[in-house]
């Protein structure tokens, strides 16, 4: 096999489009020069559209987790009580961060593969009337569940004054997000998932309510002080040296998304979700999430007859395709296919077809070709205007 070829179908980092890769090769510019301000000014409206906000979107040099940590330390004082909704590994990460910062955490946990239950959240809010923030994971990457953020946010606002804080790292840019309309207080994301960039940038936007809480919060913070970034963003600047090469790439990403139109981008992700799910089902594989809560960006599944790691190994060795293992207690049983960012129906067909060969080879029984045919049918329906 041509070993140089690497087909990344993991839920981040995701492939970087050639145009973006090229843009990142540009020579360095001064971070206090007008060229950098122009660049920040240019990407601003595109980012605001993705976040669904008229607030400033700040860009921070850091991985996605720096966004989770920033959301916690900027808004929650030591000793305050919060609810963290846990639907998988990334909800657990919010719990760990909160515990590291001496926050009183109420964990509202669901089975992995399920979404946050709005009634349970309501009950928890009524029981703990003193919570100051509720932490939610939009797409739980470990299970492929897309939590119903709009609905959950309305429950939080109806039954409390808590802030709604959302980890949108693995779906913002591939799934509609409306910070303003849905009453979200903080939304964070990272560069290496649906935003088609390498890892290294964190993006964050917040509401006026969140700003007021940040201003009143006595907890010390320095590099991740979001008020610093927000103030600098308003002047098209950054408080510290930005990751300029990634900003060059971001400029191209914003352009690419505009060319496809944002609705087109979201439609493409829904199409890839349906193709992947119907394809996997037709191969007698078990989907972890139900259709009602399935994320357009990542699909988790199990193989009833073959060890998950054998499947991953064969896909990598025979086809150069990387899919991901599960996380936490699902590490050895679950497989995950990332279909976000620089990914199309063509890529989904490739991974499904290769997976069929691998499964046949490993002795899993299903009707040969059924997965590919099921995905093809989803694609064909799209052309007839049937909503997928
Ligand atoms: C990838 C991911 C993160 C963390 O990202 P890092 O860049 O690895 O820090 C956080 N939340 C979710 C939901 C993710 O998918």
From TrEMBL:
Its cofactor is pyridoxal 5'-phosphate. InterPro entries: Aminotrans_V_dom (IPR000192), PyrdxlP-dep_Trfase (IPR015424), PyrdxlP-dep_Trfase_major (IPR015421), PyrdxlP-dep_Trfase_small (IPR015422), SP_NH2Trfase/AEP_transaminase (IPR024169). Keywords: Aminotransferase, Pyridoxal phosphate, Transferase. Substrate binds at residue 336. Transmembrane segments: none annotated. It comes from the Bacteria. SUPFAM superfamilies: PLP-dependent transferases. The keyword rRNA processing does not apply. GO terms for molecular function: alanine-glyoxylate transaminase activity; L-serine-pyruvate transaminase activity. The keyword Secreted does not apply. One of its GO terms (biological process) is glycine biosynthetic process, by transamination of glyoxylate. It holds the Pfam family Aminotran_5. The modification N6-(pyridoxal phosphate)lysine is found at residue 193. Residues 29-344 form the Aminotransferase class V domain. Belongs to the class-V pyridoxal-phosphate-dependent aminotransferase family. This is Aminotransferase. It comes from Tetzosporium hominis.
